[in-house]
TrEMBL record:
<feature type="transmembrane region" description="Helical">
    <location>
        <begin position="12"/>
        <end position="32"/>
    </location>
</feature>
<keyword id="KW-0812">Transmembrane</keyword>
<keyword id="KW-1133">Transmembrane helix</keyword>
<feature type="domain" description="DUF3817">
    <location>
        <begin position="7"/>
        <end position="93"/>
    </location>
</feature>
<keyword id="KW-1003">Cell membrane</keyword>
<feature type="transmembrane region" description="Helical">
    <location>
        <begin position="38"/>
        <end position="61"/>
    </location>
</feature>
<dbReference type="InterPro" id="IPR023845">
    <property type="entry name" value="DUF3817_TM"/>
</dbReference>
<protein>
    <submittedName>
        <fullName>DUF3817 domain-containing protein</fullName>
    </submittedName>
</protein>
<dbReference type="Pfam" id="PF12823">
    <property type="entry name" value="DUF3817"/>
</dbReference>
<keyword id="KW-0472">Membrane</keyword>
Length: 107
């Protein structure tokens, strides 16, 4: 699954969305209950690392798939709202912006 741009983006987009949900749940328990900040301490660094991985994968995918500027911007912006990376990935597949078999030869 990691051998194509589509596979890499799919995995990292899903991981980014799941880590977002984990962080949101951790924040709920931290601020809405008296259960402490364990969830934020666990999911904060995880989400941060996966967020950075998503940005890196988007940069490589944009180059490999020859995305225009707006597609790349939307991919990056989708990392901000929770679960939007999954929506972007599905849209990119559906519209042909993310071809699961097309890989540009670099160099």
């Amino acid at each position: 699954m990691f051998d194509t741009p589509a596979g890499r983006l799919r995995i990292v987009a899903l991981a980014e969305a799941v880590s977002w949900v984990g962080l949101l749940i951790g924040m709920f328990f931290k601020y809405a209950t008296d259960l402490g900040e364990f969830g934020v301490k666990v999911f904060g660094p995880i989400h941060g690392a996966v967020f950075v991985a998503y940005i890196v994968v988007v940069a490589f995918t944009a180059r490999e798939q020859r995305w225009n500027r707006w597609t790349t911007v939307w991919a990056l912006v989708s990392s901000i709202p929770p679960l939007a990376t999954i929506v972007f990935e599905r849209w990119a597949l559906r519209t042909g912006k993310l071809d699961p078999v097309r890989v540009r030869q670099l160099g």
